[in-house]
Specification:
This protein is α+β, with helices and mostly antiparallel strands and about 400 residues long. The chain has 2 domains: about 10-120, no CATH class; about 120-400, Cathepsin B, Chain A (Alpha-Beta Complex). It is about 30% helix and about 15% strand. It has helices at about 10-25, 50, 65-70, 80-90, 95-115, 165-180, 190-195, 210-220, 270-275, 280-295, 310-315, and strands at about 35, 40, 45, 135-140, 220, 260, 260-265, 300, 320-325, 340-345, 355-360, 370-375, 390-400. The strands form 3 sheets. Strands 4, 7, 8, 9, 10, 11, 12 and 13 form an 8-stranded mixed beta sheet that branches. Strand 10 (about 340-345) and strand 11 (about 355-360) form a beta hairpin. The longest helix is centred in the first third of the chain and has 21 residues, at about 95-115.
Length: about 400
């Protein structure tokens, strides 16, 4: 999906993984449980199992380790230009069979991540929020952002695929507002420049809330947007073209910052097929509402089988209109994923109930607040014909030092 903002896992990621499986001689120390020579493994499970279709093996893997294994800077084969050349050559000379092979590998990788994510902790509904009445709720009064700047695209179709960083940074920002009464914009660029050293398989190639949390457990600092060089500049840095960040992390002012203790990603149980247990739509809706009511923003991963309906809706309708997702007749696979931020809901009218969703595609005349309304009434257990979950929902669980303020040294 070269023209879709913020794919969760793009073709470059899949092709580079495939390349690494056969050309990387040894691993460095960045992935603590990776081993092998031309046979990369995570926690004893070979990533070559992705290609072979042995996906259930990944049920035993910590999903954080998959993100760590993708840090090319940790490998002894460090000539990223050569890897980028291999990738570009593969993509520019694709035959129909090659396209099908890459698409299959991409889907298999997402399915492997789904298997690993079974090991994630689940969001637990607080006892006082187990049954919520109909009504409306919004975090927008606590979420500080400038709609025109909440934009990964830079106004162009081909751009950085770091939608996941925007949504996750927003979730971290809102958590800081609720837990510590600090309303400040946090830097998206800090993560984008720093994650995997801003090159190779980096933030613009797509990612996961799990990998986002893992990064902040290492750095333990949230950097304000207003720090020097911390505003977003990587919109035109393309993963598919083998580009690196336009802002070296060393040039970003990291003080002052807000200290963090621990960050983890929790999945909200909404998909009965995936969870392999009964979960009604009503239960799924109440779980998301409870997460919002508990002071969390909800990360929404949307992976349709066809992006055209959503793009037509986004470009041609208004912030008062409601988008209803679903499958396209005749589809055979997913069309790539995108991560957005649910900041509220309104289900007072059973005929017009919706989630309030903040997108990372900036503002426009028809969307001055960069928002859209997502119909609540859809199948939360829906999967694409290839088995990829159509919808996933997460929250971030964050703990802070007892006393928190901007640290300037």
């Amino acid at each position: 999906m070269a023209n879709q903002p913020g794919v969760v896992s793009g073709t470059l990621v899949m092709t580079v993984i495939f390349t690494l499986l056969f050309v990387v001689p040894t691993l460095g120390a960045s992935c603590t449980s990776c081993t092998g020579s031309a046979n990369i493994s995570v926690s004893g499970i070979s990533l070559q199992d992705i290609e072979s279709g042995n996906l259930t093996a990944f049920r035993s893997i910590d999903p954080r380790e998959i993100g760590r294994a993708m840090d090319i800077s940790g490998y002894s084969y460090t000539d990223l230009d050569e890897i980028s050349t291999i990738v570009a050559t593969t993509q520019n000379n694709e035959t129909p069979d090659t396209v099908a092979a890459v698409m299959s590998l991409q889907t298999d990788f997402v399915l492997a991540m789904q298997e690993a994510n079974r090991n994630l902790p689940r969001f637990t509904i607080p006892e006082n929020l187990t049954s919520l009445p109909r009504g409306s709720f919004s975090h927008l009064d606590r979420f500080v952002y400038i709609p025109s700047e909440w934009d990964q695209t830079g106004g162009v179709d081909e751009h950085c695929g770091n939608c996941w960083v925007w949504a996750d940074t927003g979730a971290l920002q809102l958590d800081l507002a609720y837990q510590k009464n600090i309303t400040d914009r946090l830097s998206v660029q800090y993560f984008t420049s720093s994650y995997h050293n801003g090159t190779g398989i980096w933030a613009c190639c797509g990612g996961s809330p799990v990998w986002f949390a893992d990064f902040y457990n290492s750095t333990k600092k949230a950097v304000p947007w207003t720090n020097a060089n911390a505003s977003f500049v990587d919109s035109r840095s393309m993963c598919e073209k083998g580009e690196s960040t336009a802002m070296n992390a060393s040039n970003i002012q990291t003080t002052p910052y807000y200290p963090l203790d621990q960050v983890s990603a929790l999945m909200i149980s909404t998909n009965a097929k995936y969870e392999e247990r009964p979960i009604s739509n009503e239960t799924a809706v109440n779980s998301i509402k409870a997460a919002l009511q508990s002071g969390k923003a909800v990360l929404f991963i949307y992976t349709p089988d066809n992006w055209t309906p959503m793009m037509n809706f986004w470009n041609n309708q208004t912030e008062e209109d409601i988008f209803t997702p679903g499958l396209t007749p005749g589809s055979i696979h997913n069309d790539g994923g995108h991560v957005m931020l649910i900041l509220g809901y309104n289900d007072a009218d059973p005929e017009n109930q919706y989630w309030t969703v903040l997108n990372s595609w900036g503002s426009s005349e028809n969307r001055p607040h960069a928002l859209f309304r997502l119909n609540m009434d859809f199948d939360y257990s829906l999967q694409n014909p290839d088995g990829v979950n159509s919808y996933e929902f997460y929250v971030l669980n964050v703990t802070y030092p007892e006393k928190i303020s901007l640290i300037s040294r």
